[in-house]
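User: My collaborator sent over this chain with a note saying "see what the structure looks like." That's all I know about it. Can you take a look?
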Amino acid sequence: MRVDAAALRTGPALLSPGAAHFLADLGNASVAVPVALTAVVFAVRAGLRARSSRWWLPPVAAAATCAAVPLLVVPLKALFARPAPPGPLAGTSGFFPSGHAATAVAAYAGAAVLLTGFLARRWVRRVVALTAVVLNAGVAVGLVVCGYHWPLDVVASWCLCGALLPALRACTRAAGSRASAPEGGTSDAGRGGAADPGRGGDVDGGPATDAGRAD
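Assistant: Without extra context I'll predict from the sequence alone. Here is the result:
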């Protein structure tokens, strides 16, 4: 509680009220879930394009990660019934853990884990991962500065939903998404088809080769 109180005292000095509310709103399901759905659609298309036999596994795992948020957070809120911090919601309870912070982890960090399984360039993967970290940090700061949550509410959500990310990562690896994804939009079949005509049109070693000998 002392850590929470100290953070609440110093928080308003970090951001203006408008900026704090903007960051806090990034944890709304109406904002975060569409980001996750966009990543899911991208993963489905990339998996089908790569002709992976388990193309469905990473998208399903990402969707399950987002769906798990209310199943985990709502019972814990009822169990702990932690009162709100001083501020606009003072006098109410049910703030531990933070639903907004949990949604942000599942949506933004989950999308980053999902996308990095299909991105071949290392620097792009790093940018995606860094963006997810910045978004989650921003949501956390916004929630605390606005007085919507105690800092430990946010940390609890990070730990709770962060524990789901290794399973999502394992699913992306099990699907072999990055290894089987075509680089530069060229598949193995396309590279094979381009090489065959260069060998005199002899695809199966049959009549084209015999005709060449007869001439």
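A starting point for your reply to your collaborator: Confidence is low (pLDDT under 50) at residues 179-215.
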